[in-house]
Amino acid sequence: MKASILKLKKFFRLEAERSYDNRAVVGGLPKALQNWQAEARAEGVGDELLTAIQTRLHNYAQLTPVERQKALIEVWRRVEAELGPFPNNGKPAAPRRPAAVPKAPPPPEPEAKAKPATTRRRAAPARPRVEGEPAALDAPATVLYGVGDVNATRLEKLGIATLGDMLYHFPRRYEDYSQLSDIVSLLYGQHVTVMGTVKSLSNRPVKGGRRSIVEALVDDGTAALRVSWFNQPWMARNLSVGAQVVLSGQVDQYMGRLTMSSPEWELADKEQLHTNRIVPVYPLAADLGQRWLRGVMKRVVSYWAPRVPDPLPAALVATAEVRPLPEALLQVHFPDNPESLRAARTRLAFDELLLMQLAVLLQKAAWQGQTARRFAAADGWLEAQKVALPFALTAAQAAALDDLLRDLDSGRPMNRLLQGDVGSGKTVVAALCMALVAAQGAQAALMAPTSILAEQHYATLTRLLVSPGGLQPGELRLIIGATPEAEKQEIRQGLGDGSIKVVVGTQALIQDPILFDQLELIVIDEQHRFGVGQRAKLRAKGDNPHLLVMTATPIPRSLSLTLYGDLDLSVIAELPPGRREVDTQLMLPGERGRAYDLIRREVAAGRQAFIVYPLIEGEEDVDSEPDERKAAVVEEKRLKAEVFPDLKLGLLHGRMAADEKEKAMAALRDGKVQVLVCTTVVEVGVDVPNATVMLIEGADHFGLAQLHQLRGRVGRGGEQSYCILVPTGGHSAENERLKALLESNDGFMLAQKDLEQRGPGQFLGKQQSGFLDFRLASLTDARLIDKARRHAEDLLAGDPDLSQPAHAALAAAVKQYLSDGKGDLS
For residue 215, which of 296, 574, 724, 770 sits 20 to 30 Å off, Cα-Cα? Predict the structure, then answer.
């Protein structure tokens, strides 16, 4: 056994013999261990073990005798695990029964409890890990003084299990109590910090003695302030007359006099943690007090944040002009000033965005490193296809088609996003690529999120591709959930033997029985409605197939750099000629009759209308308070009976069975329904050229991007069309927001506004929402996203696989990021 380990064992044995009174060695055990560590390190004892010992015993003096015994036993077990067992198991002996065991210090007074959470808390993302960080950061929170099993269980509800988790449990907001105010200058309602002397102190019972109020009079030389703490009797013991105190809180008023009720307080001669500074306010779970958690966080952050290595190379920290990671972790929890707080949050947000950008760029590089079958258009083939189209391509369509054809002839798999506003003509561009693949004997598949949309794509492709010189009727097929089993079997056989060249379908395409002969092109429409697993299953049915994903949802640049950062991008920003701008109007609820008159006039002229409602059958949330939103099922009955008894109304919503939805849409397309009452199930892909009116009820409950999508369902023929927005009330702020649709038909501009106002949720599917589960980064911060993208590109330009020693920690961080289920980002 090493001499240093023998000495450690001796320390522990002497402590046990003295009943753990911390007097076995001069100056106490923690002080002795500081000198002992140098000896142990010289004998080759590992830093990881030394750090674990220091972490567990640094607060030994504050523990009770029972807690000290437990701590020493735990440490010795760790020593044995690292260095091997020793005689007698090396355990410190149980304390001899002394005449009087020193009493443990009294427990701290209870603090005001946090209110039990009423909503389910979303799990926090896994904390970043830095290569070379102290192993003690993986130590459980119970190694901390005052954190027993009960509090550890409460902390786990916040996603805190280890010391490292604490470093990344960021405050949800801050109270700025950094400026001292004179009591004489206080105003009602202010949030302030004052310092003064306690002139009087009392604790009186209220409510028949079941409760109490502690009252103090605090004077700072300019005036006096009455302060009270309700039902916190321990405050009478914590304070005393003549004590100098610092108080932070909101100025209240009682009977004409300014007061403070239950302010944060600290003695003036102690380090200020809860007052006289920018005070962090942390997310809480039930039965955790803010003061208690702040105190625990202060101990962990102050000691461990400076010991966390920075995964970014020093050169990158300098060129990116961000703070070092240890400094950022310190300042984000306990900032010295507002500037330091902003810089800390910027650094930590930059880390999140940089890791994500590195991940998508590495994925893009890996995909581009694969080989794929080449498809080159023969001389004259493309021109013949264009001539056969019933219309001429716009310049934007032609440019997008050129991008796709280059990809198909590149020898590497296409991995491209085709983005175009509603009605811009994305499908025809994809159709020409599918025709090229089919003409050379391979297969193409188009997957849509709904049966309605799949059927529309099938009809469009039939019109565009099936001809004597093109695809034959049996070479283009549709498979959806409602397809009869006998027909599905026939389609599966045709895909397996290669006789079917193009297939359109829903999730039925990814079911196991379906095998392809030569699947070389996959087209996914409205791809954000599919999960990562669904896309991967379809990809796996081919050998490095080309992938084209399409969306009619305009994606702001900052979001496209994140969510679709691994894809090449083509944009169709031009509408086909002849499309007339939709006349968009905002009408208050009292003007609804005008909208009904418009619908009646358009129907009389042989056209059709949509009326969209935000709900299906009244209040969707049983816990929500009643609101004014209208529901499609209820309103359809009212409209039939009271408003349009002479018109043919239909109903469509998301809870209807698939065959019912198809019947409703077929009735609208065939003209059997004049007015379709529906929910946002019509938002994507429903193509009814004869529809000229879109009336949206409760428009203030939708995002601008979603409203723009709904507006795009009309105006698809040659007639003037109308979109009427009816909010639930006259809320000026919401109606100002809606006016953006009256002023612009630019989907990208509206999407950017929507992102800024409502966040990215409406642009994402569930899988993508998890991928963008940031702690501090914001998808509206275009400048920081651009900065992260630029630095990620620069890093990979000089070190494509992050294999240089200076990038080892960064490479490990990216690996961890991808291992958290974020591998296939788009």
Answer: 296
SS3 per-residue string spanning 336-384: CCHHHHHHHHHHHHHHHHHHHHHHHHHHHHHHHCCCCCCCCCCCCHHHH
In the numeric block, the tokens 């031009």 are attached to: 574
Residue 312 corresponds to which amino acid? L
Question: What letter would DSSP give residue 531?
Answer: -
Task: Taking each helix axis as running N to C, give the angle between helix 338-368 and helix 325-333, from 0 to 180 degrees, rounded to the nearest 10.
Answer: 130
3-state secondary structure labels for all residues of 583-651: EEEECCHHHHHHHHHHHHHHHHCCCEEEEECCECCCCCCCCCCCCCCCEHHHHHHHHHHHHCCCCCEEE
The 722-726 sheet, strands edge to edge? 583-586, 722-726, 691-697, 608-612, 675-678, 649-652
Q: Report helix angle 29-42 to 47-57, nearest 10.
A: 180
Q: How far apart (Å, rounded) are the C-alpha atoms in residues 628 and 729?
A: 8
φ and ψ at 324, to 5 degrees? -60, 150
- The Cα-based distances of 680 to 449, 729, 744 in angstroms read 14, 20, 21
Pairing of β 568-572 and β 415-420 = parallel
- Give the position of tokens 């979603």: 706
**Pick from 418, 428, 503, 423: nearest CA to 460:** 428
Question: Please, is 94 exposed, middle or buried when counting C-beta atoms within 10 Å of its C-beta (0-12, 13-18, 19+)?
Answer: exposed
Candidates 422, 498, 506; CA nearest to 682 is 422
Q: Quick one: tokens of 551? A: 């969306």
Strand-pair partners of 162: 140
Give residue-wise pLDDT tens across range 768-823: 544 566 888 887 788 899 899 999 999 999 999 999 999 998 998 888 887 765 54
From residue 658, alpha-carbon distances to 453, 483, 661, 676 in Å are 12, 11, 5, 17
CA gap 80, 90 in Å, rounded: 8
Sign of CA dihedral 709, 754, 564, 121: negative
Question: Using H for helix, E for strand and C for coil, what is the string for 665-678?
Answer: HHHHHCCCCCEEEE
Beta strand residue intervals within 65-135, DSSP E: none
Of 295, 444, 312, the C-alpha closest to 375 is 444
- Res 346: pLDDT: 96
Q: What is the DSSP string of 713-744?
A: TS--SSS--EEEEE-SS--HHHHHHHHHHHH-
Q: Give the SS3 label for residue 812.
A: helix
Rounded to whole angstroms, how far apart are CA atoms 785 and 673? 48
CA dihedral 565, 567, 573, 578 (to 10 degrees): -150
Alpha-carbon distances, residue 620 vs 119, 344, 677, 710 (angstroms): 17, 41, 18, 21
Can you tell me the mean pLDDT for 482-506?
Answer: 92
Give how far Cα 541 sits from Cα of 274, 378, 443, 486, 496, Å. Answer: 60, 27, 11, 22, 11
E strand or H helix at 504, and its extent?
strand 502-505
Strand partners, 649: 675
Buried b (16+ CB within 10 A) or exposed e, 524-549: bbbbbbbebebbebbbebbeebbbbb
Instruction: Please give the average per-residue pLDDT across 464-474, as a whole number.
Output: 87
Q: Do 35 and 7 meet the contact criterion of CB atoms below 8 Å apart?
A: no
| Cβ atoms of 767 and 774 closer than 8 Å | no
Mean pLDDT for all residues in the chain: 83
Tokens of 420: 């175009």
pLDDT of res. 85 = 56
pLDDT digits (tens, 9 = 90+) for 611-664: 999 887 655 443 344 344 578 889 999 999 999 999 999 998 878 887 788 788
Neighbour-count burial for 119-130, b at 16+ CB within 10 Å, e otherwise = eeeeebbebbbb
Q: Please tell me which residue, 197 or 176, carries the higher pLDDT value.
A: 197
Q: Could you tell me which residue, 51 or 667, shows the higher pLDDT?
A: 667
List, in sequence order, the alpha helices (H) in 121-227: 149-156, 163-167
